[in-house]
Amino acid sequence: QAQLVESGGGLVQAGASLRLACAAADRTFVTYAMGWFRQAPGKEREFVAALSSSGASTFYVDSVKGRFTISRDNTKNTVYLQMSNLRPEDTADYYCAAGFTTIRVRDGEVEYWGQGTQVTVSS
After folding, report:
1. Burial class for 21, CB neighbours closer than 10 Å (0-12, 13-18, 19+)
2. What is the pLDDT of residues 39-95, one digit of tens each?
3. CA distance 110 to 100
4. Phi/psi of residue 63, nearest 5 degrees
5. Whole-angstrom distance, CA of residue 107 vs CA of residue 64
């Protein structure tokens, strides 16, 4: 059984918005820091954003600051990535991740991965 399931990907034009969601299998994940990574074709997976279990602490890669917002609703065991002003270079498979701290998630020390959802931004 999948522990993390992403949804919300799709094909959009540059400048549009999308909201990705990551549903966790159970309430265990409310104690985890959560994050999003992405992998573009032919490139390595890169960190995008991370959020502490309480929601009080966040990290973002510089390229998405001011455009993407990570949030969580612990009552729904769900983490979101609101993406605005999308650019063609945001095209990638986006992966949800869970780890023990935001710093460890940011550094790729992930305990659980989702299966990914594809985001394509056309110019």
Report:
1. middle
2. 999 999 999 999 999 999 999 999 999 999 999 999 999 999 999 999 999 999 999
3. 8
4. -70, -15
5. 17
